[in-house]
Design a protein that fits this description.
Length: 227
């Protein structure tokens, strides 16, 4: 493969955080968006012959629990009653997945631009400035969406414990994928926040500040040591 002439070893080092961002962004939205949960509830009645009644409850992303219902048999009568779970975690879940998807798409686009269109990227210094602003925005978005998802996950665990009378949970699908999504969210926050420095160096602001400091020091030295 032939790389552009402007692609150097230093550029390869700068691209390494971008590649990591691609991987962890996929892990974040995939573990949350692909979740499927299952509850198996048993009805415990006073009469032993009526105790072996199990209920299966399924739920998944985007976690609109208020739409999840199940039919529970009543011990005192030969009829069933419909119960609904409480809570709607879809705003936090969808916001988390949306940030993950857009972060993955942007980091993928940035990788392509860095490698194949670096001359256009560095022209007039607009590319690095836009990249810097977008990176700061995504860092903030990862902070917000991960905190929202952490709160939603806590509510999800409490709301998936059915409160119907005479019932108790036999088995429950584990929440490991949801917890992993939360961890990946905080990992993405750290990576995007840390990547701000790499993008900031591309803007040339560091060179400008260094040049200004050197000019001030040189001016002061001429004042202190006149020719």
């Amino acid at each position: 493969r032939i790389w552009p002439k402007t692609y150097s070893h230093q550029n390869a080092e700068d691209l390494s955080p971008i590649k990591i961002l691609n991987i962890f962004a996929v892990c974040a939205f995939a573990t949350c968006g692909g979740y499927y949960g299952h509850l198996q509830v048993k009805v415990d009645c006073a009469e032993r012959r009526q105790s072996n009644r199990s209920i299966n409850i399924d739920f998944s992303y985007p976690f609109r629990l208020q739409q999840v219902h199940f039919r529970a048999p009543l011990c005192e009568a030969r009829r069933h009653e419909v119960y609904f779970l409480d809570g709607d975690m879809s705003p936090a879940a969808q916001f988390f997945v949306m940030v993950g998807v857009f972060a993955f798409l942007y980091s993928l686009l940035a990788t392509v631009v860095y490698v194949f269109y670096q001359n256009a990227y560095l022209r007039n210094n607009r590319g690095p400035l836009v990249d810097f602003v977008v990176t700061v925005v995504f860092s903030f978005m990862w902070l917000v969406c991960t905190c929202c998802w952490a709160k939603a996950l806590s509510d999800l665990k409490s709301e998936t414990n059915p409160s119907c009378l005479y019932c108790f949970i036999l088995s429950m699908y584990n929440y490991t994928p949801c917890v992993c999504a939360q961890v990946f969210g905080f990992v993405n926050l750290v990576l995007w926040a840390g990547n701000i420095w790499f993008v900031f160096k591309e803007t040339g602001c560091v060179t400008m500040v260094t040049a200004m400091e050197f000019s001030v020091d040189l001016h002061l030295s001429f004042k202190l040591w006149p020719l």
